[in-house]
Amino acid sequence: VLTPATIQLRVRVPDKQGLLAYLIEIVDAHGDLLDRQEALRAVCEREERLSTGIGHGIAVPHAKTDAVRTATAALVTCSEPIEYDSLDGEPVDIAILLLGRTSDVRLHLQLLGKLSRLVATDTDREQFRRALLMANSPDEAYENLRQLSDAADAK
Q: Which residues are designated catalytic?
């Protein structure tokens, strides 16, 4: 679901709302959205229930909505950490957006589960952060994630 085309590194966003809007713009530019405003509303509504800032500088905004053609994802690293109301109170510099169709809850949960396995332990989380923050291009970030995912699946 994530491709190098939906990864952007060291972006400048002013705040949490700006970050969420930026992520939505990425998947919209990729042609994955049927309704950009509805997709953003779904993500913001989910965020109001409980912050998706999972801690350690990582946020995983996500929602189920029929505003997407199919499950999609976008990833950004921020040039400067932003306040996000994270569970640990720390600012965020990595955000991964996951959007799935309301009719495909299973796939949405599988994607969230796969992502949670990538950051399950302190060591995993540090490798994940390094792989993304040190990447020099979206292709490199994608390849680093693919390798981490393969290693997590092999455990």
A: 62
pLDDT, one tens digit per residue, over 58-68 is: 999 999 999 99
Greatest alpha-carbon pair distance for the chain in Å reads 39
**149 to 48, 144, 146: CA distances (angstroms):** 29, 9, 5
* pTM, entire model: 0.92
Residue found under tokens 């002013």: 14
Q: Cβ contacts of residue 142 below 8 Å, gap of 6+?
A: 2, 3, 4, 7
In single-letter form, the type of residue at position 146 comes to: R
Report d(CA 64, CA 59) in Å as an integer: 17
Report DSSP state, residue 4: G
